[in-house]
Automatic annotation (TrEMBL), chain A:
Organism per entry: Chelativorans sp. (strain BNC1)
Keywords from the UniProt entry: ATP-binding, Nucleotide-binding, Transport
Protein origin, superkingdom: Bacteria
Domain (ABC transporter) ranges: 1-211
Protein name listed in UniProt: ABC transporter related protein
From TrEMBL, chain C:
UniProt protein name: Extracellular solute-binding protein, family 1
Keyword check for Lipid metabolism: no
Superkingdom, taxonomy of origin: Bacteria
Entry keyword set: Periplasm, Signal
Organism: Chelativorans sp. (strain BNC1)
Pfam families, per the entry: SBP_bac_8
UniProt-listed NCBIfam families: PRK11622.1
UniProt key word Lyase: no
């Protein structure tokens, strides 16, 4: 378990005595684990558990490690779990660049350096020069790409995806899938994907776990 | 930070229950003769005997009782019929815009406005005289201060209607409006009947505590009673404050005994209301059983709309005539306008208004700041523990609004005298906080819950700690809601009369306590100038809350309303 | 006597003259020194804007001249201040009290004197400006409501009941000349007369005026009230009121709260005859645009109630020196002249014109008392106040009878 990647070690989430999820898996860097299940099956609770926001009504046992570090013992902000939800959730009171700069680690100093990194990240998702824009003026696809760029800038140790493509149009959806999985692969990030869309699972290409069926 | 949020609820409970518990104790003990300050150590029922032998004490008590019930009943009825007739239409929004500013207006200012409107020499009489009435001089009619308390009731109703309307509108989204409406319509029910039978019970459950607060307030209000209420005898609470002020300190025992009677009167009013609730429920059931459809409700709908608009119009017209008075030179009856305009009143009152103005701002801003901080801490703690406050906690929060102010502010004053804290700024801020806190929490609660917590989770995923998340994300995104909360709190503080008078002890005065003190002089010009500040300050607060976020985030469309 | 005060009450200044049997300027300088920087809470009825403005003016002068900060605590009833001091005394707060100076007379003065709530021994005669006070010709300066003042309060102004009417609406020849004529007038003009609801002092003054006119033997009112005679002595008064209320404004179902309220009602044309405890009130109201300039004054030839109002210092006042300086300033010819000017207040002075130097006297003579003010010689005889206990009983009885309608 000192290996790279995400280890789910006997993770078990119960709600009022009912077991929702019981799982042990290893997701290697760049790999994807897809969790599928109908709504209410508790698949999102797994995500919340890993990110550190599990509602206290759930009971969780087991542990999760990323690159040998037991993240489940850390406060949420130290887990470096990059999250993408089905909504892009760009901070509405910051410009596009502001959103990106906010995501940069605090260790990176210097205004111009931070700004340059943000610009580069925008280029990386094909949105060059959009830094000064108000996020509310972007199209759905642009927002999704900014959200991706934002999460990547924060130097995450893993990606947690909560049906991130479900609100996009068909053709955009395919593009975004490619983009996200390529970037994750490129960076060697283990990915946990929660979805009820078979096509997502297919595109992800990794192992699929079905729960609640 | 974690420690702080845990502290939040504890502090709030302490701040709310502490003054109330001590205050009630400080009222109950003297009522039974225990008042060591005055050397009273024996337990006796003498003061209650004295109380009940006071002339016309039961008239006063029953005035207070009817005031509470009738005010709540008429205000609620108006709001209910209006909502039933217009929910889901654009009229709601328009009336809401008309009525919302009235919410922040201190009761006393609204009462002044009404008084100067309806008095025999008031604006209305001037407008129609002598052409329509033939009055060259004001008629000798007892309108303001009428023995039945009708003027006082009207003054309360025009203020409670906005309050109940906004409370109802806040509860409205929780009721499945379009579905029920379609269902009821398909069954052939009239628009209003369908609403009342199908949705009102759900909504009413949400606004029950505010309705109780209206009953408690109207049955024990002092300032509106002084301005508009009967004088022979005055409503109970007004008389209690007079006794409390009597140079004969043994009257304090009497006042305390009276405060317990007030507690009983308000309690009785609430109990009777519970009975009325049952009656109303039974009536609804019967109507539903009979299957009456009430399809022709156009008249009632129009009447409800008219009543809403009238309530707002009365207050606004009253305020306008007050403002006119403040600039008036000689203005004799029946002239509709002053014969000359002058700045004299403003020049003369300005020096003496500066100090109350300063104290209003100081007490208002401090209590608002503390209350807003505590409300945020409490809500953060709720996020932490993922537990929403239960019925008990909400009732606790409403406690200062449900217990008659006289019943515990009397006792609180006594404790402050003991502690040598009377008429100090901290004591005044504390007293205001007791009343500002509930409103601050209640107004922040819904926007707080509405905040998409995934923003917070994303920020945490980006590696940002709690403090950073709060100050960089949550606070700016919620700036409008937080400022509105502060504006609500500030408006409440500006309007507080009794706590200011008793705790400020005449040395710390606010524009409201000064304005009510001037009420007895009947000087319309000076009252007009003070009432202006009373309406201006809360309005300024709301203006800041509206325009500041707009200005700060003018570049961001997602941050505009 | 100032030395007693200084020794007993003035904080920690130990270096006082040992043999200051006579008042010396040095003592007063000590007081001035002590007063500098103090804040004086002046508890004064705050129902009249012109008076508040006058006090505001005095505050400015005191700050500039003596470094004393004067803050008016506006009362709607002076009894509040009495209650505060009494509460403090009962709570054992014998120092650092919250009231420094009270505007007072009558029952409140009597109550405070009787309960030992006033700074004593008497200090008023030791104030530098006492030398101008007309105590020889104005007996109410030394005897307030039959109670000897004994220097426990410093005179501030004179008051006498005077009536006002609007000459544009009423014929000056038909004005009532006695309380009985007033009642007859009210019966002929229903709804046009009223009086402030007791315990407002203007209202109780009216009750005393009627009592003084209707009582058979006035001397009984100089003594404390006795239970067995009260009903008999006051019966004519209450019979009078019973009749009056039937024809009064609002049929006696409501009363104006105080004099300013009556003034407003006169301006609005609701009342035709009002009265104040200050003969120049009408002129100052005209000057302020609150009453039309057709308003005039009249009085009863048989005399009207008169008294003096004072300022007093509670025994536990926090800023005693500052309060003394304030009391002295309020007695100064300049302050008194401004007070007598209807443009500011219009309250008659307690000073003797003979005792003033010519320049100061000229200041008084230059005052335009206003068209509506009766000259001192036109005011008629001054009727002395009854013993305060009478008023307390009459207020009680008034409440018992009239608190509730019917």
């Amino acid at each position: 378990m000192k290996e790279k990647g995400l280890f789910l070690d006997g993770v078990k989430i119960t709600l009022g005595g009912r077991t929702l999820i019981e799982l042990s898996r290893h997701v290697r860097p760049g790999g994807v684990l897809t969790v599928m299940g109908p709504s209410g099956s508790g698949k999102s609770s797994l995500l919340a558990y890993l990110a550190g926001f599990l509602d206290p009504v759930f009971t969780a046992s087991g542990r999760a490690l990323v690159d040998g570090i037991e993240i489940t013992r850390l406060p949420p902000e130290e887990r470096h779990a990059g999250i993408l939800f089905q909504d892009p959730l760009l901070f509405p009171h910051m410009s596009v660049a502001g959103n990106l700069i906010f995501a940069l680690p605090e260790s990176l100093k210097g205004r111009s350096e931070r700004r340059a990194q943000a610009e580069a990240a925008l280029e990386g998702v094909g949105l060059d020069g959009m830094g000064t824009r108000d996020p509310a003026t972007l199209s759905g696809g642009q927002k999704a790409r900014v959200a991706l760029a934002r999460v990547l800038l924060s130097e995450p140790r893993m990606l947690l995806l909560d049906e991130p493509f479900s609100k996009l149009d068909m053709d955009l959806r395919q593009q975004m899938r490619m983009l996200v999985f390529d970037k994750a692969h490129e960076r060697g990030l283990p990915v946990l994907l929660v979805t009820h869309d078979e096509a997502d699972a297919e595109a992800a290409g990794g192992e699929t776990v079905r729960i609640g069926e | 930070m974690l420690m702080l949020t845990r502290l939040g609820p504890a502090l709030v409970i302490l701040l709310l229950t502490g003054p109330i518990a001590f205050g009630l104790a400080g009222t109950v003990l003297p009522a039974f003769g225990f008042l060591p300050v005055l050397g009273g150590m024996e337990l006796t029922l003498r003061h209650f005997r004295d109380l009940f032998s006071e002339p016309a004490i039961f008239t006063s008590a029953s005035l207070s009782l009817t005031m509470g019930l009738a005010t709540a009943f008429i205000s609620l009825l108006t709001v209910m019929l209006f909502i039933a007739g217009y929910a889901g239409t654009r009229a709601i929004g328009r009336v809401q815009h008309l009525v919302s500013p009235l919410l922040s207006l201190p009761h006393a200012a609204a009462a002044f406005g009404l008084a100067f409107l309806i008095a025999p020499s008031g604006m209305l009489a001037r407008l129609i005289s002598p052409e329509l009435t033939g009055w060259q001089r004001p008629p000798d009619l007892l309108i303001v201060n009428d023995p039945m308390g009708l003027a006082m009731m009207a003054g309360l109703i025009v203020k409670e209607i906005p309050f109940l309307l906004l409370m109802t509108l806040a509860a409205l989204p929780q009721a499945p409006l379009p579905q029920t409406r379609m269902l009821a319509a398909s069954l052939g029910y009239g628009r209003m009947a369908g609403f009342l039978l199908g949705l009102w019970p759900v909504i009413y459950r949400q606004i029950r505590l505010p309705v109780f607060a209206v009953i408690a307030f109207a049955s024990s209000v002092v300032d509106v009673g002084i301005i508009l209420g009967p004088t022979r005898p005055a409503p109970l609470a007004v008389r209690l404050v007079e006794w409390m002020d009597d140079p004969d300190l043994s009257m304090r025992n009497l006042a305390s005994a009276g405060a317990l009677l007030q507690l009983g009167v308000t309690g009785l009013a609430l109990a009777l209301w519970l009975g009325l609730e049952r009656l109303g429920a039974a009536l609804c059931t019967r109507m539903a059983m009979h299957g009456w459809r009430f399809r022709r409700d156009a008249l009632i709908r129009a009447a409800a709309l008219a009543a809403m608009v009238l309530a707002a119009a009365i207050v606004l017209a009253g305020l306008c005539s007050l403002l006119l008075w403040s600039f008036a030179g000689l203005w004799q009856f029946p002239d509709a306008l002053p014969s000359s305009f002058t700045l004299r009143t403003w020049m003369r009152t300005l020096p003496s208004i500066l100090e109350p103005l300063r104290m209003t701002l100081l007490a208002g801003l401090l209590s608002t700041l503390i209350a807003s901080l505590l409300a945020i801490l409490c809500l953060m703690n709720e996020d932490e523990t993922r537990r929403r406050p239960g019925r008990g906690a909400l009732t606790l929060l409403y406690l200062p609004l449900l217990i008659p102010q006289v019943a515990f502010v009397f006792g609180l004053q006594l404790f402050l005298v003991y502690a040598g804290m009377l008429a100090t700024l901290p004591a005044l801020v504390l007293a205001h906080l007791v009343f500002v806190m509930p409103y601050a929490y209640l107004s922040l609660k819904d926007p707080w819950y509405a905040f998409d917590r995934r923003y917070d989770q994303i920020a945490a995923g980006l590696g940002k700690g709690r403090a950073r998340r709060f100050f960089s994300i949550r606070l700016p995104v919620m700036l409008r809601a937080v400022l509105t909360t502060a504006a609500v709190g500030f408006a409440v503080s500006v309007g507080l009369y009794l706590p200011t008078v008793l705790v400020g002890a005449g040395r710390l005065t606010t524009v409201t306590s000064e304005a009510v003190a001037l009420a007895s002089g009947g000087n319309a010009r000076v009252i007009g100038a003070y009432a202006f500040w009373q309406m201006f300050l809360p309005a300024a607060g709301f203006a800041v809350a509206t325009f500041m976020p707009t200005l700060i985030f003018r570049r961001f469309r997602g941050m505009q309303v | 006597m100032l030395k007693h005060f200084l020794a007993a009450a003035l904080l920690c200044t130990a270096s006082l003259p040992a043999h200051a049997e006579d008042f010396t300027a040095a003592d007063w300088n000590k007081v001035l020194e002590e007063a500098r920087g103090q804040t004086v809470y002046f508890n004064a009825w705050g129902g009249a804007q012109n008076i508040n403005a006058y006090i505001g003016w005095a505050a400015g002068e005191l700050r500039d001249r003596y470094g004393v900060t004067l803050k008016q605590v506006k009362l709607d009833d002076t009894a509040h201040a009495v209650a505060t001091v009494l509460a403090e005394k009962t709570a054992g707060r014998d120092e650092g009290g919250s009231v420094d100076l009270i505007w007072i007379n009558g029952e409140n003065f009597a109550a405070m004197k009787e309960r030992g709530l006033l700074l004593s021994p008497g200090w008023a005669q030791d104030l530098p400006n006492w030398r101008y006070v007309d105590h020889e010709n104005k007996p109410t300066i030394t005897t307030d409501f039959t109670i000897p003042v004994e220097g426990l309060a410093s005179p501030w102004g004179m008051a006498q009941l005077a009536f006002f009417y609007d000459g544009a609406r009423m014929d000056a020849a038909k004005l009532p000349r006695t309380a009985d004529e007033l009642l007859a007038w009210a019966e002929a003009n229903p709804g046009r007369f009223s009086y402030p609801q007791p315990p407002d002092f203007t209202g109780t003054s009216f009750l005393k005026q009627v009592l003084l006119e209707k009582v058979t033997d006035r001397s009984v009112l100089d003594r404390p009230v006795e239970d067995d005679v009260f009903a008999e002595v006051t019966k004519p008064l209450f019979d009078y009121l019973d009749t009056l209320h039937k024809v009064a404004w609002r049929s006696g179902r409501a009363f104006p709260q105080n004099y300013p309220a009556m003034k407003q009602l006169l301006a609005d044309g609701e009342l035709d005859i009002i009265f104040a405890f200050n003969p120049s009130e009408a002129s100052s109201a005209i000057a302020n645009g609150e009453l039309p300039d057709t308003v005039r004054s009249f009085t009863f030839p048989g005399g009207t109630l008169a008294n003096t109002h004072f300022v007093a210092i509670p025994y536990n006042a926090n800023a005693k020196a500052g309060a003394l300086v304030t009391a002295n300033f309020l007695l100064s010819p300049q302050a008194q002249a401004r007070k007598q000017d209807p443009a500011f207040w219009g309250d008659p002075t307690v000073l003797s014109m003979e005792k003033l130097d010519p320049a100061a006297r000229a200041g008084f003579e230059a005052i335009d008392l206003g068209i509506a003010t009766l000259k001192p010689e036109e005011l008629g005889p001054a009727l002395g106040e009854p013993h305060p206990s009478w008023m307390e009983r009459i207020e009680e009885e008034w409440n018992r009878r009239y608190t509730a309608e019917n």
